[in-house]
Amino acid sequence: MFVSGIPSEAAILHADLDSFYASVEQRDDPALRGRPVIVGAGVVLAASYEAKAFGVRTAMGGHQARALCPRAVVVPPRMAAYTQASREVFRVFEDTTPLVEPLSVDEAFLDVSGLGRVSGTPVQIAGRLREQVRDRVGLPITVGIARTKFLAKVASQEGKPDGLLLVPPDRELAFLHPLPVQRLWGVGAKTAEKLRAHGIETVADVAELPESALSAMVGGAMGRQLFALSRNIDRRRVTTGVHRHSVGAQRALGRRGNTMSAAEVDAVVINLVDRITRRMRASGRTGRTVVLRLRFDDFGRATRSHTLPRATASTEEVLCAARALVDGAAPLIAQRGLTLIGFAVSNIDRDGNEQLELPFDSVPDLGAVDSAVDQIRERFGTALLTRGVLVGRDPGWEMPMLPD
Question: Where in the cell is it found (predicted)?
Fold first, then answer.
């Protein structure tokens, strides 16, 4: 049953693994259990709750993290282990309900409405899901339950670590309004600062304002979003079969990024574009828009993009656009210091269509070169064939793409 487009029953689950990478490390090495663990040396990719208690946070520089928590055990990331663990967890999700909407490698929305006679109440279903993730995969997971996707996600945040939290329909605003304004989707440090300048600290403060006032503070689109979410208005359903709208990769550089030469930055650019375009070709996708994402020493971020005249998965074409974006952002990088660089290709064509150009005989067959390289790597391993500029360089650890 739905009321104004929103289900009347709290039957949407937001399941979120706790400190995913660090939990996998603690699972696989008993000596790490109960100890502060940091995954990643140059930049923190993940921190156990024992490390978080000292103030260590994801994306923090490694030097700062070790200063906050000198007794932390620092381990290198093992992406293959995390990928396998993610697959096993999603099998549990899919065994729970057919309505699973992945959000990332370690979280998803699940719709369990209509399963009452077969599986029990949403709380019972969530409890069994947590038990099965623990028993079958060996990892802790937190589940939030609510009528809306937004509130289910907030509930899982409030229920961490290793918890289960239901927000009953008659207690939604009582639960939501006392929370800090940062709990509203889209409110990062800059938006929170703008709101604080107007004396807005909590979700209740937001809910007291008309949409027009919020739009004047933070812009029309954000104002409309905050007005709705502060009242728990979220009519989005859990949708399955969600396709990625972009293919991306990024690399954390840490403090070392401040001293990297242009050639060293270019090597990182080449490496990331090579990975992205190989994935695109492997999945039969092409794209038109190349997006550059930067993070700076002051934790600020910047995004630049360029749309190509035609969709492509060619490494050389994407690389040319990526280099141009980096060149355009060079003054900003020099001024603020670079700690992370990432790229994504969006405007995806999932059929892999590419527009041919006339005259055909004047177009270099870059696709044939890319295809040959892909086949060699597939057969003999990625490391066998690489670009000359990358020989002898540390390929670095690729981080999962973070939202802007």
Answer: Cytoplasm
Q: Tell me the whole-structure pTM to 2 decimals.
A: 0.69
Q: What is the pLDDT of residue 388?
A: 57
Q: What's the pLDDT band for 172 if we cut at 50, 70, 90?
A: very high
Q: What gap in Å lies between CA 160 and CA 47, rounded to an integer?
A: 14
> Is 25 in the active site?
no
pLDDT digits (tens, 9 = 90+) for 360-379: 454 455 555 556 665 555 55
Which residue segments constitute the domains of the chain, with CATH numbers given? Answer: 1-169 (3.30.70.270), 177-238 (1.10.150.20), 247-399 (3.30.1490.100)
Average pLDDT, the chain: 85
User: Does 16 appear as a known binding residue?
Assistant: yes
More confident residue, 104 or 269: 269
106 annotated ligand-binding residue: yes
Cα distance between residue 165 and residue 144, in whole Å = 5
pLDDT tens digits for 54-88? 999 987 888 899 999 999 999 998 988 998 999 99
